[in-house]
Amino acid sequence: MTSLVSASFFSSFFYVAALTFSISMGIVAGINGWRRQDVKFFMLASLADAAWILAGLLEALSPETGLKLFWNVFHWPLMLAVGAGYLLFALAYVGPTSKKASPTVIVLLVVPLLLATLAAALAMAGFESLLYLRYNRADRLFSQLLYKPSAFAAVLSIYFYALLLTALFAVAWHALARAVEQRRGALVVLAGFVALLFGYIIGALPGVSRSVAWAQPLLDVMSKIFFAYGLFSERLFGSLTKARRAVMDTLLDPVFVLDKGEAVVDCNAAASTLMGALPGDLTGKSARELFSGWPSSLTAALGYSEAETELDLPDRDGTPRRSYRISVASSSARDRADAWKLLVFNDITGQKSDARDMASTNEELEFWVKQRTAALRLEVAQRTSAEERLRELNEEITKTQREILWTLSEVVENRSRETAYHVVRVGEYARLLSQGYGLLAEEVEIITAAAPMHDVGKIAIPDAILTKPGPLTADEREQMKRHTTVGKEILGSSQRPLLRAASVIAHEHHERWDGKGYPLGISGLDISLSGRIVSLCDVFDALYTKRVYKEAWPLERVLELFKAESGKAFEPRLVDIFFEKIDDILVVTERLADVPVIPAS
């Protein structure tokens, strides 16, 4: 630990200022309110605090360790004296009518103080170990006496902070209680205790006091300013009466101040104008008589300590002239000797006029909103009907497109050596593989509908080549390969998703995964997914079904070929999906068979 006063010339200046302020506050408090318990204890706490600061300054100004230790010994009894003084001040502040503290409190404060005083005396006599386990040498001006306190000294420090915390909690409870009448003063005193405690904590932290040496004395001065305000402004000197303050705060509205007999004791100029009289003419008159000709709700409100009513003052012809909201407020039930009542007239004529205008505007707005809502509903119904018709037209167009594609596919197949249901089966195989690949339902439907058009380009191939029963020559094979490019040209001119997909399939369904296909020779993922799917489906149907020029392959032979061509002719993932879906594929083959299919052995 370190001494109370940080050892430097700069910090000593702040402590001298705090010392002077503490002495001044103690003297001023004694002069202005010696007979009050809370002021008396505040004075004693301030003077004890001044003595504590003085001892710290003398320690800092001592040139050798012995003198510094001598003055430091005073730290312990003065610390407890300050804590006891502030606790007594707090207890007296929250209960200023009590004449003295309870015996229990006195014992809890006096006994530790006496023990600290005795320990300090013994330390001066050479028994430093009672308070210090060890301390450093400090043989120059403004050097700090660093020491490690004994267990007894540590208990004294903890007890000191406990006293301050108790005082803080007592004032906090008092400030937050609903029955507190002078809440603002209590909150200010509470702020003083917070500043005081925070300053002592800063001073006690090792390594902090040197860097912010000004903080502790500054917070000490601030706390005393808060204490003084809470005492002198709120408790000693008093303030304007609440009724007078209410009149001053509401000068723009008519205000009447009534005594406990409901006679007018004061009013402002606006009240006199309201009644058409001078302020002096209204004083002493009974409020009930004064307002006897007014609506009965006003005199009824006077019968309550707190009330609010609204009334209109009519002209002679019955037309409303002014509208007022009248509020009644009274003093606390405990202030029987100085009971008062306020009658405040708040002119709300403009508010009522605005409310009427607002109501009229709202009615007009509601009318137009209803009209617009009806129009919108009709418009929505018409748009919904149009959208439904458009959807039906789109479905009809799509259906027509598919029928055209199927018809064209059948024409092509009838010219070639393919079986009647070849294109249908290829479409259904493509549906199964697309679903297994995880495509969206819309994408699956497009591929399924477009797949049968994969050989549409054969319409441009001569019949002699298409129907030739034997192997094709090299030149004939090159002409046959042209059907992919022709298919793209036939279908590629449309912007419809279905026809565009059919164009891509017609162009790429003879490409291979390893890049050895035609017409582009592209490989891997450069081939469209629809082209990769239809390529596999076309090969399977060509091998597994009987044609006029060949017999159907057994299933085992077809599956062996697909395993061998995985990663070569076909995408490996599609081959895996093909094997997963083989049962469903075989169901399609049997359902759409042209001739009996050779079963698996």
Summarize this entry quickly.
This protein has 601 residues and is α+β, with helices and mostly antiparallel strands. It contains 23 helices and 7 strands. It folds into 3 domains: 9-236, Up-down Bundle (Rhopdopsin 7-helix transmembrane proteins), CATH 1.20.1070.10; 242-352, 2-Layer Sandwich (Beta-Lactamase); 410-591, Hypothetical protein af1432.
Describe this structure in words.
It contains 23 helices and 7 strands. By secondary structure, the protein is α+β, with helices and mostly antiparallel strands. The strands form 2 sheets. A 5-stranded antiparallel β-sheet has the order 4-3-7-6-5, sandwiched between helices. Helix content is 62%, strand content 7%.
Give a topology summary.
Layout (H helix, E strand, L loop, with lengths): L8 H25 L3 H25 L3 H9 L1 H20 L8 H22 L7 E4 L11 E3 L1 H26 L6 H22 L10 H22 L5 H8 L5 E5 L4 E4 L1 H7 L3 H4 L4 H4 L5 H6 L5 E8 L5 E11 L9 E8 L1 H67 L6 H16 L3 H10 L12 H4 L7 H18 L5 H12 L20 H16 L10 H11 L6 H9 L1 H10 L10
Antiparallel strand pairs: 1-2, 3-4, 3-7, 5-6, 6-7
